[in-house]
Structures are given as structure tokens and as C-alpha cells.
Amino acid sequence: MKLRPGLKGGQLRILSKDQVYDIHLAILRVLKEHGVEIQHQATLKILDEAGADVDFKRQVAKFPEHLVEESIRKAPKIVRCCGRNPKEDFIVEGRKMYFGPCAGATHIIDLETKERRFGRLSDMADVAKISDALPNIDFVMGLTSASDVPSIMVGLREPYTVMSNTCKHVQAFCYGDGELTKAMIKMAEFVAGGSDELKKRPVISLYNEPSSPLIFGSEYVEALVEWSKAGLPLIWAPCPISGATAPITLAGSIVQGIAESLAGNVICQLVNPGVPFIFGSVPLVLDMKSALVSYGTVETMIKEVILAQVAEYYQLPSWGTGGCSDSKVLDEQAAAEAAMNLTIAALSGNNLVHDVGFIESAKGGSIELLVICDEIIGMLRRIMKGVSVDDETLATDAIMEVGHGGSFLGLKHTLKYFSSEHLVSELMDRSGWVGWKREGEKTLAQRAREKARRILEEHEIEPLPKDVKEEIEKIMREVEKAAVKKAA
Known about the structure:
Structural class: alpha/beta
CATH class of the largest domain: Alpha Beta
CATH superfamily of the largest domain: Trimethylamine methyltransferase-like
Helix content: 40-55%
Radius of gyration: 23 Å
Shape: globular
Number of strands: 22
Distance between the termini: 51 Å
């Protein structure tokens, strides 16, 4: 079975091997001497029995070096992520890269009115459908959040909506506790065809963001434990903010973020040795002029490269960021920042690059930017593919066949190699002034909007079977009933 190919990245290095090792030693020291506050007694007990230094009163666990390093060895170096359609499966290994949106942005730019508004469940369905059709989007999240869904049901309604509108791999944002997580797993089992099938072909992974600095809230830990028990791919990626919830220095914020992530891996591997774990962080920066969190800074891009280098040192699959902007609308800043951080992401080699389509520092989502980024990722794939140099591609026979002053346009050699050597752009306008005027003087944003609308009108998704939908709806009714009863 042919899999999604991935983009081979990792060409850019910022740190020397000695510097990477110094970061590793600093991470071990933070975990051993300072530890992590873990607000979950059962997990603290597990850590205590495994040899961690646990202060149950303060809820702080300190991790000895051997426990951290042993957990790294237990984590798989290769992770399979599957879609409902096996043709959408991909393998996370080495520095192969895959791209997709995130979820959780409170607002979205309306595709029709162009106005900023709160996100809805229907927006997440549209994002999933468009992502399913975009050739360079590998995994799917809903980009925004569902303001029209009761808060107790967001953690189930959102991933169900996304899974219903794509056949690609789905990543679910962690909103809830252990019980909600178990319900999500049960829901995924029905989609996959049973618990055994879900383990063989995980159609969903969980994205969990613990708090910085070095605090694991009880609900996050419950979700981590339940997902680990199920043996499904898990992303444990804190969002340390340089200057606010992490040190202002780039190296220091990297040390803290990775320490937070590796502490999560220790818990995972103690609960279920060999559970697929994606390590990393979302290395943000506090803009000192506005006091707002920034996604588009060059410092964030530098930290992405460092994260990939440390991931390579640990030989662990890693989480990255790209295709996002601090701009409030789809303008020149949005395009420039998204193209820049996608390029750095590709050169860094982090395996799963999320946040594609985020604007307004992750407070907003732009479907048009998602569509544009798909085109940019296609360009990056072509660049990373490189150039074939052999007797045919050197084209000496073709050069001599055409002769002096001739044309290569009608040559068989041109027809044979055009599609493999050249990337045909769907969004970037290559016409002349007259042609551009004749076609309506459309901007890149307008062409992206038209493409998104066309996908929504024409693209078809294989629906979930009726019996599966009925079972999932039953699960959600039971969860909602239990939540209402608990709140009463």
C-alpha cells in the first residue's frame, strides 16, 4: 500500500553537537533537581514506585536521570498515523515531515462575509473537508473551536465532526478529563472497527498541552494516562512563552519546554511501555511592546530548529509549528510570516508541523491562508525533492537535436519530463498584465477563497456508516447526561 510520502527535512542546523548535549544535560538537571508539579495523586504514586523523588504534599515529582533516559529508549522511533482511507496513512520516522492545521482558535474569518466572528462546529466541518481535498495537508484538525456547542460536549463534538468530514488522520485537541478521554477513545474504536483495529490502525491521535512552567493539571494527566493505556499516538507539547512562562533566553526556554515534554513521556512509558509518543513544545515568545504572545517571530523559528536537533539526538518523533501568522487578516504580513516559518519548518525537520492557517497569534483561523499554505508546502516539497542528474536529465541529446536557435517546446523530451521536473501552480498567477486584467484582476486571497468554495461545493467525503454514527451519538448522549447530572 502506497503511503503519503512526507517531506524530507532537517537540512538546517543551528547548534553544534556539543551544544545539543549541553541542552540535554540541563534538561536532566531541571527534571532531577527541580521536578514537575503533577496534580494527580495516582500518577505521583506510579512515579514514586518507579524511583522518582515524590513530595506528595507539594505534588512535586523529581525525575532521576535513568528514569528519563529509559523512557526515551522505550518510546517508539517510528509512529504510524492512519486515515479512514488507508491511502492517507503515513509513517513518522527520521526527519520526514507532515503538515496540518491545529484547532482551538476562538475566532475565524468568515469565508463569505470576510468578517471576524466566533468559530462554529460547521466551520470545523468545512475546514476538515477542505483539508481532506488539499494534497499537501497530511493530518486534520478543525482550525477553530465550536462556540455553538455546550462546553461539556466540545471535547467530543469537535473530533467527531472532523472525523466525519475527512478520510485523513485526525488529531484531537485535549479538552477534558479521563472520562471524556475514554469516551473519545470509544468513539474512535467505532470509526476504526473495534479496539484491536484502532491499535493496529490509529485513525486519531491526541494533542495535549500541559501548562508552563512545569505544571501538569489533573485533567491533562488523566487524559494522558487514559490515552496511554489505549496505546494510541500522543502529542505532549507544552507552550512555554519566552519572557512570561519560560526563560527569556532561547536556550533556557528550550530546556524548560523539553523537560516538560519528556516528563510526560516518563508517565506514558510507565503506564504503557512502548506507547507512541510525539515529543516537543510550541516555543512561543512574549512580544515586549504589546505584551501579547507572538507566533511569527524569528526567535520562534530558531527554537523550532533547535527542537528538531534535540529530537534527532533523542531519536524521537517531534512536534513543530508553521504556516501561521500574528497578522489579524490575510494580508502581506500573513503571507510573509506563514511562508517564512513553513520554510524554516521544512529545513528544521520536525515531523508533525501544525498551526497551518492560524492568524492573530492563534486566536483566529483563516481558511484562505490554509489553502495558500498548501500551495507553499507543495513548493517546498519540490525544492526538497532536489534535482535528478543522469544521462536523460542532462539532456545533451535534446540540446543537440534542437540545434542552434531552435525550440524545445514540441520536443518529446519536454513532454516526457515536464510534469516531473516542474510544479504547476494553481494559485500563483503567472499570466501577463493583459491576461490578469481579463481574468478579473484577482488577488491571491481571492483565488484561495474561490478554491475553498469550489472544494466545499464539489469535494465528496465517504460518510461514516449509519450504525457507527448511531453508536457515537449514543456515547455523546450518555456523556452529556452524566455531565448534567454531575453538575446538578
